[in-house]
Amino acid sequence: MQSRHAIPPLDAEADFRAAHPEFEATRSLDELRATEYSRVDRDGHVFLDYTAGGLYAESQVRAHAELLLSGVFGNPHSTNPTSLATTEMVERARAYVLEFFGASPDEYVVCFTQNASGALRLVGEAYPFSPLSHYLLTFDNHNSVNGIREFARARGARVTYAPVIPPDMRIDADRLAGYLEERATDSSNLFAYPAQSNFSGVRHSLDWIERAQSRGWDVLLDAAAFVPTNRLDLSRWHPDFVTVSFYKIFGYPTGVGALIARKSALRKLHRPWFAGGTITVASVQGDRFYMAEGAQAFEDGTLDYLSLPAVEIGLRHIDRVGLDRIHTRVGLLTEWLLAALGALRHADGRPIVRIYGPLDATDRGGTIALNLYDAGGHFIDHRVVEQRANEAGISLRTGCFCNPGGGEVALGLSATELSACFVRSPDRLAIDEFRRCIDHKSTGAVRVSLGIVSTFADVHGFVEFVAGFADEDPAEA
After folding, report:
1. Backbone region of residue 207 per phi and psi (left: phi > 0; alpha: psi in -120 to 50; beta: other values)
2. Are residue 17 and residue 82 in the same domain, yes or no?
3. Which of the chain's ends, N or C, has fewer CB atoms near its CB within 10 Å?
4. In Å, how far are 81, 84, 229 from 72, measured between CA atoms?
5. How far apart are CA 223 and CA 213, in angstroms?
6. Residues 400, 402, 421, 437: which is the catalytic one?
7. Is 402 a catalytic residue?
8. Mind listing the pLDDT tens digit for each residue in 26-77?
9. Strand partners, 111
10. Residue that terminates a domain, selected from 320, 353, 385
11. For 345, left (φ over 0), alpha (ψ -120 to 50), or beta?
C-alpha cells in the first residue's frame, strides 16, 4: 500500500538525525536491538504495542534460566534449605524494586501481585471507605482504577470524576483543584490518577501528589504506563500507593506486578478476608485470625516465587541500558511521528489522521491514540485499520484500551448518549449493539506506542502504512 506521500526511508532518517543530533546518544539502543532483540527484525515485525507489553532481551531469559538450573528452590513458606534459598531470592527482588524506584525501605514496602490490576484491587477492597469518604479520580484512568469506585459505592462513599479537556486530554486543573477542597476532615479520602495516560500518552503532573496530600487526601498513582520510559523517583515524589506491572517495563516475566505502598498508608488498609500466607495465626474452633504485618498480609497464598528473580534481572537490565536513554529516544521518535502523521493529507487537503492528545512531545509519552479518515471525511473503522496492519506485519492496538473515560471524551460521546444505551440494555450490552446504539460513531481508536528498542524505521514504516489510505474510495475504506 505505497503512496505518493512516501518518503525514501534513508533520506527521511538522515533528515531526522540531522534535525535531532541528540538522537546519536541513543545509538546503543540500535545495537541492543541487533543483539538482544534480533528476533524482531528477523521475523519482520514492526512492533508498536509497548504500552500493552514490553519486549524482553535474550539475556534476561538466559540469566533467569541459568539461575533456576543452578539451584534447588522450594516453596518459601518454610525454613528448610530450599525454602530459605527461595526466600533470599524473593527478598533480593523486593529490595531491588525499592532501589530502582528510589524508595526508602524505611518509608515504602513492596507487595508483589499478579499485575497492576491486582495491586489496584488490593487497595480498593481494603481502603477504609465510609459514607463520609470521597473517592476522586480523573476521567482518564484504566478500568482497574475505575473499578475501585464499586468498592467505594458499596460502602456509601462519594465518587467524583475530574474531567480532562480535549483535544490535548489534559486534566482540568481548576476543576480538580476545587474537588480536592471537597473532603470530610474526619474520614479517609482517596485520589487516584495515572502518571501517564495509557490512552492519549499525556503525562499528568506529579505535582498533584503533594497538592492532594497537603489537603488530607491519600494518593493512588497508577504508574503502569509511565515507568517503562520515565524515571519515577520515590525519594522526590511520595504517593501513598503506586501500582506497576513489570512486563510493561521489560517484557519478562509476565504475571508479576507490585503495589509499592508507604508503610503509613498500608496500615490504613483492612482486608475483607485472609488467605494462606497472610496471617500469623488462624483458628477454626477459636474462630479467630491475626493478620501478618507489612507486605506479607497482602500476598495471598504462595507467590510466583520462581518468577520473582526475573524481576530483579529485568530491572538490572533496564539500569544497564539506561532509562534516561530510553526516555530520550522515545521522546524524539514520538515528536517526529506526531509531525509526520499530522502532515498526511488527502488530495483535497483533508487530513488523514486525527490524533487524540497533545500534538507535540511536551509532557507526553510515546503512546499515540488516533483515528484515520477517508477522502469523504468519515472515520475508518479501527477494526479495518487493525486488519490491514496485521497484513502488513505491524503490531498495534485498537479499541478503548481499558480506558473508557479517555475514549468517551476524545471521541465526543456524551453522557446522555451513553446513558440511553445502558437504560436500553441494563443487563448485558454487546459491542455491536453498543455501536448501533450510538449511531455507529467510533467506539475506539488506533493506538501505537514506542519503547525500549523502537527505531526510526518502525515509525517511518507506520507513517508509510497510514499514507496508503490517502485518497482511498470511502466505500472501500
Report:
1. alpha
2. no
3. N
4. 9, 10, 35
5. 18
6. 402
7. yes
8. 999 999 999 999 999 999 999 999 999 999 999 999 999 999 999 999 999 9
9. 259
10. 320
11. beta
